[in-house]
């Protein structure tokens, strides 16, 4: 939390410096304006098209069709479940990543960090194929799950959640890692001199100190899980009501019911904007 | 000023050797129950490292830490008690109050960690907050507390566990000058009531002189002087201490007694300094501890800048006194005093002289001017410098 205040101060200082720069007469060469304007237009115009082409009049009826309702419900539930899994396993992973510097070699940490980042750079379809090869009915682990317990994961809602967890986990780990690095470890020293065990220190001191980082990571995670397409369709398929999430539903609807696709897209856009707004001051760990 | 029972059982006895990244800390200290020891030293001297070692936050490479008859650290025997099990209270620099907890919950954190039921922990914490004078701020988060209030809350958080040893890391450094005076006075009172041993780490000589019964001066990882506040301020052994307590310290090449009483020192460059002290005074002040062995001691003259008179012409003979030719090297205006830094013609020794602004107006001094300095022999004391 201290870290955030410092960051806020930095931003205020940066803003003040920026204003001072404006008074000196800008400083952006004219040649940069053209590509900058093209870039922003390129980012914004597709969304403008989406809004312009939206069948505003028929939105309510589109929104309340059983197909859209199913996709929306499935998407929200699976993304929430994936986020919960990410928090449950990602926070400890971030903790190990940061604190392993006390005892592990730098190589161990570099390798661990690279492994965490893999899903960020991996094409999601590859992630889906990999999950299939691990958990498929004849997969590395999946064959035993099937032979011994009769459990088959692919093409179930569980598969949707796992695919989303796979792609979203790095977002949470990075956000929490950044918060942990910024947290003053002397608070933990203080707690230790007060008699708190390591577990109590983690629960009552460390976790509250990095809570803003955890919630920022969870929001990013949720957004990523909600938009997941490639890994999901590969590993879980697209069975309506079971594995057909909103992005898949929107993609499929484009063939048969373009208006429905637009409405689903608008819905996803709205969720993204909510996420963006809720993150405005907490964009930490990633890129900073 | 308490007179701690130095013969009684020491509450804290420590020999701490820490070697980290080329830095070596080697400190021996003893604090009796009810005693306050100040560790005074410049930044980077190893003060905080010493405190962290005593708190158990770092494991010393060698040495021994004992509280009463409990051994907390004995690396040779493989003994190291974790901070949780030491019964040592710490008030950290910047206080480190948990930002997400109220003042009350900060204080209650320790009792709760020790398994005290919530209700009782809160009652005890409230009593301590009231005792340190911020009972009405119990519900406030640390961010809403002033510097002085945070310091008190941190003190209550450490003392609520009734530790046998209390460690304070720069307890007043984070406060502004006005608050510092009040908080220092109150802190002095709480430390007086506290029955255990206190170790206070500071770079502010005033904290050490006011709060402590005994001072050790730590420079570059080793103790360069130890003594009561009076001893340290009267007879500084190093230039660092001399500067801190505002004294001139001139190391002599030789020391001899004078027939009529008193002694004469000869400094590098042939500068003569006479003192009313007998030569034995230079040896007497050196404690026979390891840090101040005879091989490391040099006889030296100590006198206050306010005892130095500045003349623009050579003064005539008077009472027995030192008269030195010098050049003005620098002039600083302090509140009600002008401090003149002079270099003696013989040997180029630095001598500080304090004059009143009125006298300064008459002297009309500028850097580079030739002056005469005089100091009465009775104002010059002998010491054993490191």
From TrEMBL, chain A:
Source superkingdom: Bacteria
Transmembrane residue ranges: 32-52, 72-98, 110-135, 155-176, 207-227, 261-279
Coiled coil region boundaries: none
Keywords: Cell membrane, Membrane, Molybdenum, Transmembrane, Transmembrane helix, Transport
Subcellular location(s) of the protein: Cell membrane
Membrane topology of this protein: Multi-pass membrane protein
The keyword Zinc is annotated on this UniProt entry: no
Primary subcellular site in the record, as a coarse category: membrane
Record Pfam families: BPD_transp_1
Cellular component terms per the entry's GO annotation: plasma membrane
Molecular-function annotations in GO: molybdate ion transmembrane transporter activity
InterPro entries for the chain: MetI-like, MetI-like_sf, ModB_ABC, NifC_ABC_porter
Function description: Part of the binding-protein-dependent transport system for molybdenum; probably responsible for the translocation of the substrate across the membrane.
Sequence similarity: Belongs to the binding-protein-dependent transport system permease family. CysTW subfamily.
The protein, known as: Molybdenum transport system permease
Species name: Cryobacterium psychrotolerans
UniProtKB/TrEMBL annotation, chain B:
PROSITE patterns in alphabetical order: ABC_TRANSPORTER_1, ABC_TRANSPORTER_2, MOP
A Gene Ontology molecular function term of the record: ATP binding
Keywords: ATP-binding, Molybdenum, Nucleotide-binding, Transport
UniProt-listed InterPro entries: AAA+_ATPase, ABC_SmlMolc_Importer, ABC_transporter-like_ATP-bd, ABC_transporter-like_CS, Mo/tungstate-bd_C_term_dom, Mop_domain, P-loop_NTPase, Transp-assoc_OB_typ1
Top-level taxon: Bacteria
Region (Disordered): 278-298
Protein's GO biological process: molybdate ion transport
Pfam family, one: TOBE
Protein name per the record: Molybdate transport system ATP-binding protein
């Amino acid at each position: 939390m201290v870290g955030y205040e410092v960051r806020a101060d930095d931003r205020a200082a940066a803003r003040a410096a920026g204003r001072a720069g404006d008074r000196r007469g800008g400083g952006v060469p004219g040649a940069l304006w053209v590509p900058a304007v093209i870039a922003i237009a390129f980012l914004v115009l597709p969304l403008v098209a989406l809004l312009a082409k939206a069948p505003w009049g028929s939105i309510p009826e589109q929104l309340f069709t059983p197909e859209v309702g199913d996709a929306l419900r499935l998407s929200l539930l699976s993304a929430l479940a994936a986020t919960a899994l990410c928090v449950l396993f990602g926070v400890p992973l971030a903790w190990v990543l940061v604190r392993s510097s006390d005892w592990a070699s730098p190589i161990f940490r570099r390798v661990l960090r690279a492994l965490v980042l893999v899903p960020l750079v991996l094409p999601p379809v590859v992630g889906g194929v990999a999950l299939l090869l691990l958990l498929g009915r004849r997969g590395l682990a999946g064959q035993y799950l099937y032979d011994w317990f009769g459990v088959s994961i692919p093409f179930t809602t569980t598969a949707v959640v796992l695919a989303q967890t796979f792609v979203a986990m790095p977002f949470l780990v990075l956000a929490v890692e950044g918060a942990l690095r910024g947290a003053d470890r002397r608070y933990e020293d203080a707690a230790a001199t007060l008699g708190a065990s390591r577990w109590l220190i983690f629960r009552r001191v460390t976790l509250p100190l990095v809570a803003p980082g955890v919630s920022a990571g969870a929001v990013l995670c949720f957004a990523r899980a909600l938009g997941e397409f490639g890994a999901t369709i590969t590993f879980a398929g697209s069975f309506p009501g079971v594995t057909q999430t909103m992005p898949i539903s929107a993609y499929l609807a484009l063939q048969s019911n373009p208006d429905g696709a637009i409405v689903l897209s608008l819905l996803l856009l709205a969720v993204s904007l909510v996420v963006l707004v809720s993150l405005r001051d907490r964009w930490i760990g990633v890129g900073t | 000023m308490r007179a701690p029972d130095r013969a009684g059982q020491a509450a804290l006895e420590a020999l701490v050797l820490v070697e980290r990244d080329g830095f070596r800390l080697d400190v021996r200290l003893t604090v009796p129950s009810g005693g306050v020891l100040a560790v005074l030293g410049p930044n980077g001297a190893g003060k905080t490292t010493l405190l962290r070692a005593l708190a158990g936050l770092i494991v010393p490479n060698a040495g021994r830490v004992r509280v009463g008859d409990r051994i907390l650290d004995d690396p040779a025997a493989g003994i190291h008690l974790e901070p949780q099990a030491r019964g040592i209270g710490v008030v950290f620099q910047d206080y480190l109050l948990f930002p997400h907890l109220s003042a009350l919950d900060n204080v209650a954190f320790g009792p709760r960690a020790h398994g005290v039921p919530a209700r009782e922990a809160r009652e005890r914490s409230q009593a301590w907050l009231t005792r340190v004078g911020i009972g009405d701020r119990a519900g406030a988060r640390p961010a809403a507390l002033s510097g002085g209030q945070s310091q008190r809350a941190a003190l209550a958080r450490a003392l609520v566990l009734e530790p046998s040893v209390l460690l304070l890391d720069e307890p007043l450094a984070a406060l502004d000058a006005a608050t510092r005076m009040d908080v220092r006075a109150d802190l002095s009172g709480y430390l007086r009531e506290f029955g255990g041993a206190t170790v206070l780490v500071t770079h502010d000589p005033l904290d050490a002189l006011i709060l402590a019964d005994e001072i050790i001066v730590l420079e570059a990882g080793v103790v360069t002087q130890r003594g009561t506040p009076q001893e340290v301020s009267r007879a500084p052994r190093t230039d660092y201490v001399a500067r801190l307590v505002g004294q001139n310290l001139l190391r002599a090449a030789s020391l001899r007694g004078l027939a009529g009483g008193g002694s004469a020192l000869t400094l590098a460059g042939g500068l003569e300094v006479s003192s009313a002290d007998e030569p034995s005074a230079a040896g007497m002040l050196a404690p026979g501890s390891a840090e101040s062995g005879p091989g490391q001691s040099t006889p030296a003259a100590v006198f206050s800048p306010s005892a130095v008179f500045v003349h623009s012409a050579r003064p005539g003979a008077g009472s027995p006194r030192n008269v030195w030719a010098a050049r003005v090297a620098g002039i600083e205006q302090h509140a009600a005093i002008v401090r003149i830094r002079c270099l003696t013609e013989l040997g180029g020794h630095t001598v500080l002289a304090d004059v009143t602004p009125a006298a300064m107006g008459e002297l009309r001094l500028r850097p580079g001017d030739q002056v005469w300095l005089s100091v009465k022999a009775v104002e010059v004391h002998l010491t054993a410098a490191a």
